[in-house]
Amino acid sequence: MNRTQQRIEEINKIGYQLDFSNVFNHAFENYKKIALYAGSILLIFYFVLAIFGSSIVISLFGIGSLTKESIENLQHLKLSGNFLIIYMTSMILLAVFIAPFTAGFLKMADCADKDKEFNFATIFYYYKLPYLTNIIGATFIISVISIAISIATEMINLSIYGTVISLLISLFTYLTIPLIVFGNFNAINAIKTSFMLVSKQPLILIGLLIVAGIAAMVGFIGCCIGVVFTLPFIYSMTYAIYCAIIGVDALDEIEESKSGPKTFL
């Protein structure tokens, strides 16, 4: 049994403690190392995504769909029939496609924390097996459940409950991707373990996530484009939280293993 497994079992029995200021300081110091590089990548990514998304909308609905009136009509459109299927499928595919990309920022944060070199290719580090299948599998499961609940509650005019449930799902599955990429968990066990870890300290985790979200939104002040350079703070926070819970030693042990990535639990 390696140190990660031992740590998980220990947490399951006696829980863990998080020091808010220590986690925040770790996240901030890490963020300073990746902000410029990660922000530049996000700027390019969102630019390409905007072009791609606009092209799809135009091809499906025509150029008139980009007018203000048409966008407002789409916002008030009731989900039904083929549109419902298209909406669910597109949201799930988008989440699945982006998940390994965003996981790359965690790899970048890990490299920066250990003063290791990282570059543009680092962002695509997890587009390889076995990480890719587990990241896609976990993201697919979470997205299907969350989107299905949101749509179901919207159709019965209880969208507020759908929003709350979706937020809770996001909270309790927050550590799923870090567990896959740093702990070598498979998709199902990563989700289950994330639920267990978050349930031990939900309030302090919520506090850290709120602070991270506020810090990330600071980029909207002055020039909105600055948000792409503050968003990486969220990934640094995720990394700092995982390190605080599981421990850096466990990360190093897995990274230095010569046997390659394995899934366990």
Short description:
With 265 residues, the chain is mostly helical. The chain has helices spanning 3-14, 20-61, 68-75, 81-113, 131-155, 159-172, 176-183, 187-200, 202-217, 227-230, 232-246, 248-256. The protein has one domain.
Instruction: Name the structural class.
Output: mainly alpha
The helix content, as a percent range, equals over 70%
Per DSSP, the total helix count is 12
Q: Report the strand count.
A: 0
Fold and architecture overview:
This protein has one domain (3-256). Helix content is 75%, strand content 0%. It contains twelve helices and no strands. The protein has helices spanning 3-14, 20-61, 68-75, 81-113, 131-155, 159-172, 176-183, 187-200, 202-217, 227-230, 232-246, 248-256. The radius of gyration is 19 Å and the shape is globular. Residues 258-265 have low confidence and may be disordered.
